[in-house]
Each structure stands twice: as structure tokens, then as C-alpha cells.
């Protein structure tokens, strides 16, 4: 049998480095996605204001969704684009969000608020 040529402490230390690196990668990817989605929302809102469209319009988001999906793949449904717009509207300062919130957290909060509003409208 081969005798261990390294200590268990060495493996644990290297394992900790790998684990921490993986966590950092996830955080960085999450922050990059948040900033991207926030900026997409910002661009949509600014275009809406620039063109004096009080309502961006479902047709506009549907058309934009189709174009972006053809070009970049999944993730750009009308509902997602609308959520990105609302994300920007709710958090107009991106620094208040990055590092503290993930896109999943935002969506869970968004849907939770929607359910509360529906309950209030129909069950109170």
C-alpha cells in the first residue's frame, strides 16, 4: 500500500481554498447578473421615458423579448424583461443591492408582494 505523502491538514487547507474560491465565483457571477439585469431595466425605463411612453406596452416587450431570445437564448421572456424593469424601478441605486441580494431573492420578494396584493384585493 502507498503511504500518504501528505498530511490531512494539507488536504483540508487546500480544500478550504477551493471551497472559498468556488463561493467567491458564485458571488461574482451573481453580482454580474444583478448589474446586467438592473442595467437592462434601466435601459428599458430610459427608452420608455425618452419616447414618452407612459406604458411600455406589452407588444414592445414581446417584440424585444423575441429579438433578444433569438440573439442570446433563454432568459429574456417578456415577463423577465418586465421584472428587470421593475427591479431597476424598485432599486434605482445598484450599490444598495449588489452583494446583498440575488436575482432569485428579488423575484421571490416580487412574487410574494404580488400574492399579498391579490389576497388583499380578493379576500379582504
Q: Helical segment tally?
A: 4
How many domains make up the 3D coordinates? Answer: 1
State mean pLDDT (0 to 100 scale).
82
Radius of gyration: 21 Å
Helix-strand string: HHHH
Domain YhcG N-terminal: 13-108
Outline:
The chain is an all-alpha fold.
Key phrases:
4 helices, single chain, mainly alpha, 124 residues
Q: Could you please describe the fold and organization of this structure?
A:
The chain is mostly helical and 124 residues long. The protein has one domain (8-123). Helix content is 74%, strand content 0%. The protein has four helices and no strands. The longest helix has 43 residues, at 8-50. The protein is elongated, with a radius of gyration of 21 Å. The chain starts with 7 loop residues before the first helix and ends with a helix. Residues 13-108 form the YhcG N-terminal domain.
Helices and strands, with pairings:
Layout: H1 8-50, H2 58-72, H3 78-90, H4 103-123
Helix pairs in contact: 1-3
